[in-house]
Amino acid sequence: MIYIKHEKGEYGYLDERKNKYMIYSIVSLVSVFVFFFTGIIIYHSNKSLFSVIAAVAALPAAKMIIGYIIIFPYHSGNKEIYDTCVELSQDKNAILSCDHVITSEIKTSYITFAFILNGNVVLYSNHKKIDTSYAEKYIKEILNQKCNISNITIYTDSQKFLSRIKALNKNEKMESMDERIAKQLCAYSV
């Protein structure tokens, strides 16, 4: 099997990241228990250097487990929709970014596909429990820190999303801003 590393914003990134987090979580949790029980077996007490090592090793283990818990409910989008979006992004010279889990202090929002053209950000989420109004407001707030967004919309219906991106028109002057928007979206993604 050939292993392909996906970068942030590429299709399949979330599924790959989820698998990595699961493996890292299990390995780090097992190492914590191995250190702890090694100290108990050798010294017949939990008051040893091995307990300290286990306690310190628990911190990255907890980080990995929490990262896995955050992204567990989400999956990469439908391949057919992705292929259609890739075709449209190539035709319109737009930017397509995928698999974004955006976390705020209040909520976590999953964006399956982000289609960026002329400062317009059209988002699709296959997660039906997304609070679209809150997610739109929060994403617009983080993107407006470095980019001037003219419009941002989140769709949960794939047909409405596809018809909206088909209606967008290309404008040559906005390409560099579209790239900045995509980079900013990736920067705030888990």
Describe the structure.
This protein is α+β, with helices and mostly antiparallel strands and 190 residues long. The chain has 2 domains: 13-71; 79-187, no CATH class. The chain is built from 6 helices and 4 strands; from the N terminus they run H-H-H-E-E-E-H-E-H-H. The protein has helices at residues 13-43, 49-71, 79-92, 132-143, 158-167, 175-187, and strands at 95-103, 108-117, 120-124, 151-155. The chain has a 4-stranded mixed sheet with strand order 1-2-3-4, with helices on both faces. Strand 3, helix 4 and strand 4 (151-155) form a beta-alpha-beta unit. Helix 1 (13-43) runs antiparallel to helix 2 and helix 3 (79-92) packs parallel to helix 5. The longest helix is centred in the first third of the chain and has 31 residues, at 13-43. The radius of gyration is 21 Å and the shape is elongated. The two termini are 27 Å apart. The mean pLDDT is 90.
Shape: elongated
State the helical fraction: 40-55%
> Which consecutive residue ranges, at least 5 long each, have pLDDT under 50?
none
| Order of H and E elements | HHHEEEHEHH
**Into which percentage range does the β-strand content fall?**
15-25%
- Number of beta strands: 4
What is the alpha-carbon Rg in Å? 21 Å
